[in-house]
Amino acid sequence: GVNPDLASERLAASFSVELLTASLDGGAERTRMRRAVVEAIENDPVFSQENQYFQSQNERYEAAVKRAVYLQKKIREMGWSETGTEVQYIYRCLSGDIALSLHRVFMRSISVLGSDEQIAKWMPLATSYQIIGSYAQTELGHGTYLQGLETTAVFDAATQEFILNTPKISAMKWWPGDMGRSATHSVVFAQLYVHGKCYGVHPFILQIRSLQDHSPRPGVTVGDIGPKMNFQHADNGFLRLQNVRVPRENMLSKFCEVQPDGTYVRWGSQKINYFTMTSVRISVLSDEVIRPLMKACTIAIRYSVVRRQSKLKPGEQEAKILDYQTQQQKLLPQLAAAYAFHFINTYLHELFNRGYQDIQGKNFDSLPELHAFSSGFKAIVTQHCTSGVEICLRACGGHGYSLLSGLPSLYTKIIASCIYEGENTVLLLQTARFLIKCFMAASAGQPVPPSVTYLSSAKPGKCPAKNKSDFLNPEFYLKAYEQMASRLISSSAAKLQHLIQSGVEEYEAWNQCTVQLERAAKAHCHYITVKNFVETVEKLDNKAGIQKIMKHLCDLFALHGIFSNMGDFLYDGYLTTAHMDLVTASYLDLLPVIRKDAVPLVDAFDFTDKSLNSALGSYDGQVYQRLYDGARRSPTNQQGNPAYGKYLKPLLQNKLSKL
Amino acid sequence: GVNPDLASERLAASFSVELLTASLDGGAERTRMRRAVVEAIENDPVFSQENQYFQSQNERYEAAVKRAVYLQKKIREMGWSETGTEVQYIYRCLSGDIALSLHRVFMRSISVLGSDEQIAKWMPLATSYQIIGSYAQTELGHGTYLQGLETTAVFDAATQEFILNTPKISAMKWWPGDMGRSATHSVVFAQLYVHGKCYGVHPFILQIRSLQDHSPRPGVTVGDIGPKMNFQHADNGFLRLQNVRVPRENMLSKFCEVQPDGTYVRWGSQKINYFTMTSVRISVLSDEVIRPLMKACTIAIRYSVVRRQSKLKPGEQEAKILDYQTQQQKLLPQLAAAYAFHFINTYLHELFNRGYQDIQGKNFDSLPELHAFSSGFKAIVTQHCTSGVEICLRACGGHGYSLLSGLPSLYTKIIASCIYEGENTVLLLQTARFLIKCFMAASAGQPVPPSVTYLSSAKPGKCPAKNKSDFLNPEFYLKAYEQMASRLISSSAAKLQHLIQSGVEEYEAWNQCTVQLERAAKAHCHYITVKNFVETVEKLDNKAGIQKIMKHLCDLFALHGIFSNMGDFLYDGYLTTAHMDLVTASYLDLLPVIRKDAVPLVDAFDFTDKSLNSALGSYDGQVYQRLYDGARRSPTNQQGNPAYGKYLKPLLQNKLSKL
């Protein structure tokens, strides 16, 4: 049965959970279909993640490979498409705990960067799993800065081959997924040399393991990079190459080619490469970043109405911890952020799809904006969601620290998103560079993309708000965000110009402004997130109370942002300290309002118990029983205790220790 | 050999690393002695932590028990004292990766709470390890709120025994260290009932396992609570009791007793119980909280001068990442905080020792201040250090995410310190309660402890600073902190009073102020930390440039605090936006100054490579070679790949998949 404290929360919902779920999902039909697919997968024991928290790295890897292979079989049996909705739903319910995901990136890179002949040769082999691919770009010594890669590919005209080498230890490929123990082939990035001249980084298809017995090919040293904070299921690998030869035809050559005599030919635009990165950054957000925050909120909020601790009112029963203002202040802003980021994700996908259409029409104008947005939002969403998951974990006290709560794994996994697909600081500075350019253009009266026109229109002013309810008017808080972002960008630009004019070299001036530029880029993305939330709420159906509760969440997200970054807003002059008191009061007033709907708001995320995999977060709220059941299943209680016989018994019965 | 990029940093030191180490250690003699002890332990293979990152929970536990038992033997052989300096050094170098640490808490609780007869009976048994003890307070359903514990102890006058029970699942003991698999005895806290009347929570000595074969005693269900985010070496346990009887003499009875006829007698002060908690909170900071931050700084800063990435100046070699302003802004404030907290730790120990002397003279006046300070500083130091370690981890990019870097383990362990020994929010609100009381007393002209006299003396004013160098004057920034803390406390008090006067019940008014009260308590502790740093620097010897570099760190710590909490300072009115520009400029100017000495400043923490256990942080800076060596030693490369034969081979050679 459901814990009565949790059940009573659901009875009090001010809106229809079903309708909200459908609205988040893109319709009730999709929800229904997703549930059917998820149920089929979750009932299959191969896909069970029940013992995940007890497994070693080797066990996790083996289970992930088993799942990947079994899923291929299932996809063939069911006639699903590899990129279809069903497979998407399955990935959602497996939470990425599956091997061979880099095989898809291997295929994507061949289809994007390969010539027609290369596609015709390699894609059928990959699609039918006669080979398993990986994607080897990052090296021990180089990540985000691709130009610095040190692996070399020297053209040997005599044999019509490239000779690949790892000239020093820092040039070893390091981190590629599926490479450590699984892949037979890889797309390897290396500096191309022809007749002694370097042509920069190019991709080569390389066989790394035998198709007979899986042993490394001659000249290849390959293995797993060892233990990580999470991703135990993935065999991230290293690769060392000593005079490994590949035929001339193995350099991916949609955009450039080395001809038999060594002539280097380049054609087509290189810009499209950015587009692939942009697409990966956007696609990662929903599954790997926003959904984990939604899960963490679900776990922490359900637990916080089951857990009772200490007395709020003397003489009464102990209070649900969610009734404490401090607990609300921890969790409810994370809940609001999960919704805010879900909506910004939709916004980014629309922006991306429009850009993609333009590109198909050979119009590359939207690429800079798309690149700047995907970089900046990847950075702020991963950062916010990572810190949100940590807050949820800590808000569950000691039990949040048990792996059985599900929270530690969410945290140790999501924190990687701040690093992979571009380190966040580097990305934010790319966004900042775009913003500074737009600001300069706007100042010179030149046209800029619609998303940044506010840079020229924002004028200093004073907020007209007179009482705390005025701050529930989006016009007032949006204006505050706009002013603040615009001021941070313009003042960074001014500092930059000032330094350059006073004789500091441009690269050094840029470096001296980066702390402020990073802040400005964050402020811009924060502003756009609030703006998009406001616009989303306006467009929502007002049926069944959904618009109303979403408006509360939007207000909370906006006001929490002001409350937490008071300095940036006060500095601006648009808001005074008297306004800050109103913002604070209005923000704190919202907490108990949203608290009433907190459980229905996480129920609407519609996670199954199996995908949450949490003793604290299950739908029935039987947290203590589930913790106990989990403990009893742990290997620490399943085997005897060899330490007793070996060390404790002799100690307890040591003659020296006798009285 | 040492990596030349790292070696060159050391040549440029502006101060003597040896002298700074000695000054942090309490003298060169102590440093010398510590090094000798640490070396002896580290060279003993039993104490090697080399394979820690590859071990399962069971393996970690077994190794930790082995170490604990072996250490006992060593202590006896060497004739060391269990509480002596040598043993302290050994614990420092083992980083807590050792079992039976709760045995000490078991003994401490008997010696503090037990009668003379109880001490005479139990202490020799414990000291000679004829029994192994644990300390069972926390339950599944109750942590910080001790009054809510549900385990019962009912007095049976007929048999002169207490009958202990776990009446429901939430009453099960949960988390006690060493209980899951090791302990034979435990101090168990339970609600005492005599003749149907409840007398509140009392401690009982209970045997939980047989001394013959270690099996659970009748009525006892005991085991390990399963996987955790870290602390795999510790067998945190659960304990379920069904009509377990202990003799009347087993209730610890220094302060109260149940007499044979059931008469309950209490004598002595209960306040001394707080003192034990205070002592634990303070003692945990140095080893479990500040030192991990120092280690994380050592790892991240050494790595940041070895790692070169991207070009700062076109045409030049790639730059050391520590030369980027954004990297300095991440790491150097953490370094300054590590020093700030090292010094506040000394301050707290002095406060504690003075309080202890008072108490021995039966003067309990300093208890409230001590309790408030130990609570507040426990909270802010654990919070700052946890977030500092996370920043260091992320600042190392992908390699920071490898367990081999040492950073993930530091993080997953230190985050527990925000929860154990009192949840931070609960603790900060206790500090706030003390501050509000002091504020009210001061307002009424009553005397208050010296540390909070500023609450009555702070008067609104304007900062007289005119240029950025003025903010290197501690007088100016201290005044800003003082005003800010004082204003946050007085305005929380005003809100509280206003609510109560307008008819809100006191408990509800308190709840409605807790977000602001928590902020006020943090501000107070932050102010005291800055003040103590300033005073420490003033007292430092100016020999060999130490005072100068410490002054820089102190300035950085103070200005970073203002830069990061701009809102609280601007709100106050003491600093204007023009001042904020000066603070920002002064703060950013300090970064490159401290950056020059960053490596010597972490070298001075004087960690051995073995205790850092980090491929990125070793003294020689051979990061890539060490990552590679670590990967090769990983179990993922030591055994074959059963997943190949079972799943990949059939997939690759599947007839269905043939073209």
TrEMBL record, chains A, B:
Domain spans labelled Acyl-CoA oxidase C-terminal: 473-653
Record-annotated Acyl-coenzyme A oxidase N-terminal domain positions: 17-132
Binding site for FAD: T138, G177
UniProt keyword Cytoplasm present: no
Active site location: E421 (proton acceptor)
SUPFAM superfamilies with a match to the protein in the record: Acyl-CoA dehydrogenase C-terminal domain-like, Acyl-CoA dehydrogenase NM domain-like
Translocase in keyword set: no
Cofactors: FAD
Localization: Peroxisome
Pfam families registered for this protein in UniProt: ACOX, ACOX_C_alpha1, Acyl-CoA_ox_N
GO molecular-function terms, A-Z: 3alpha,7alpha,12alpha-trihydroxy-5beta-cholestanoyl-CoA 24-hydroxylase activity; acyl-CoA oxidase activity; FAD binding; fatty acid binding
Protein family membership: Belongs to the acyl-CoA oxidase family.
This protein's name: ACOX2 oxidase
Gene that this sequence comes from: Acox2
